[in-house]
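Workshop exercise sheet. Pairs work together: one partner reads the sequence aloud, the other fills in the structure field after running the prediction. Swap roles for the next sheet.
Pair: D.N. / O.F.
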Amino acid sequence: MATATLSPPSVTPPTYHRIVSPTLTIPSDPLKPIPVGLLACQRDPLLRELTTTAVSCRESPAAAPPSNGRENKKKKKAAPAPTAPLLEIILHDTIIFPEGGGQPSDVGILTSSDGELWDVIEAQRHGGHAVHYVRLKPEQKVEHALQIFAPGALVGVALGEEGYKRRLDHACMHTSQHLLSAVLENKLNLPTLAWSLTAWPTPSYVELPRGMSPEEIASAQEECNRLVFEGRSVHVEVEELHDDNKQYDTPSVGIPDDYTGGVKRTVVIDGVDRNPCCGTHAPTIHNLQLFILPQIETLARSSTSSARIYFLAGPRLIAHLTSSHTLLASTAAIMSCGAPQVPERVQQIVDERRKATKRVEDLEAELAASVAERLLSSVAHKAEGENEGGSLVLHEHRTDDSVNALAFLSAITQAFANKIGEREKSGEKAPRFLLVLSSSPSAQTSASTTVVLIFGSDDKKAKEVGDELKGKLNVKGGGKGTRWSGKFTGVWKDGREGAVVASIIDSVRM
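Structure field:
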């Protein structure tokens, strides 16, 4: 049995790319492009560079490569349009894969005959041709590019270090998806409805008609890795495309309607799967240890439902393990425990935090009741000797670093209202009152927020004072009925903002 390793083979086997149509040949005319399906990147996925010729070059009418349409499902904030010119270059052959089959585009570098380097930011299939989108650097000119990439000019094509890492990642994830989909179909009768090769380093997913149990996930993963350790080979069969062979007896969506390359390409995992695909696949699965994340994402639509399972393989799996271990080790160090004890310690801290939060809430409720009693006693002192229930117009400012200072002020007003209700039940006449409560953090800056809460027995008076605060202190807020709340931004000082509030309430007559 072959030993599995995460190191890819250095050379693609000569049996990888197989032309099975006796009349199909790779075009040799350097002024004509090889169609997508027969490109060098598809014949040899491990090839890093080659020399070819330019077929055409033009300045792109768009500021960015055209969208593939996937962004339409989720609205995103539009990025600023690039200002540097964009070229569209077609070559006789290329190792830069044009986006297709669910696989994103490669990136790479073109070298012109004068030794200048040109950055390929994306490649796309137009009809049957691969179009390279080259973003010009500030010192590069369109006129020079049109001359240096004239038809027949020699061009070097390379993936570069980052481009080759991207290629290996895409090849590992794409081939792993074929393997996983085949195992799910053959072992569990679960066809793949869709899939996504997500951006590095996040897990990719396959979408299925239903979710999977933990036992099914474990079984599928075990079967995939059994085949991986057997070292099954992968090859590609290419034939001429005719109307009678466009259809596939597989879950694949088949060949795109706008494809005009004339080539039918089938990716074969020995003894496991045959599926149409234009992607760049690893020549063997022996380096593709696969991990299925145990979480299931359920999707509910108007008439159907489905589920996504996420998976990792190859370099992306190593990155995930490295990142997870780093996070776990860091958390264990913070918790002063070993990695196996982290869940228990985290649960302990969560429980302690919940208890502490409950204790703070209880103490704040007790303090709010005490403050309300003190404020209400001010009414009683003022009303001594009077026949009426008394009145109170008061501003009280607090310094509070609570995450929700407004909630504490509301608790004070609620306790105040409850105590008035208790006095009314005992036969006492309810006092007239207007309270202006404010709260600032202990350390203030120009961006600090002071919350203001107005509570009164007369809703018109509460609104009048709120409007005054808006006009004189630029407090942003509003209210309904007997309550009005707002926020003041900046440094609140008793001798300045507090004095303004005092002058406002001095004019209030209850």
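Discussion prompt: The two ends are 93 Å apart (CA to CA). What would you look at next?
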